[in-house]
């Protein structure tokens, strides 16, 4: 399962250099609902109060994952050579 935001980010990343993206159809996609938006906004505000700055798309993905009781797997690309 992936979130609709993850689907978008992956699709964009694959379409940009014109890579095949057919395998994305193998995933079920969690849609981002109004309830998810409320949860994400509350989470974002809580993190800001603690001085943590996180990209909005990452907040949306994390919030959706939390609400669905799923495990979040995140890959951070090392930009240092």
How does this model look, in words?
This protein is 49% helix and 5% strand. By secondary structure, the chain is mainly alpha-helical. It has one domain. It has a two-stranded parallel sheet.
Question: Which short descriptors sum up this protein?
Answer:
81 residues, mainly alpha, two-stranded parallel ribbon
Write down the domain tally: 1
- The helix/strand class is mainly alpha
Q: Label the overall shape.
A: globular
Q: Per DSSP, what share of the residues sits in E-state strands of 2 or more residues?
A: under 5%
C-alpha Rg (nearest Å): 14 Å
The strand order across the widest sheet is 1-2
Low-confidence stretches are: none
SSE arrangement, N to C? EHEHH
Number of strands: 2
Helix content: 40-55%
Number of DSSP helices?
Answer: 3
Average pLDDT over all residues: 80
For the termini, the CA-CA separation is 32 Å
Largest sheet entry: 2 strands, parallel
Outline of this structure?
This protein is mainly alpha-helical and 81 residues long. It is 49% helix and 5% strand. It has 3 helices and 2 strands.
Q: Topology of this protein?
A:
Layout: E1 2-3, H1 4-15, E2 29-30, H2 34-49, H3 56-67
Helix pairs in contact: 2-3
């Amino acid at each position: 399962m992936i979130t609709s935001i993850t689907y978008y980010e992956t699709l964009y990343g694959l379409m940009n250099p014109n890579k095949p993206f057919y395998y994305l159809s193998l995933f079920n996609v969690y849609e981002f609902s109004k309830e998810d938006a409320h949860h994400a906004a509350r989470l974002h505000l809580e993190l800001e109060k603690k001085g943590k700055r996180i990209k909005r798309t990452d907040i949306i993905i994390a919030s959706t994952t939390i609400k669905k009781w799923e495990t979040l797997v995140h890959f951070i690309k090392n930009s240092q050579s």
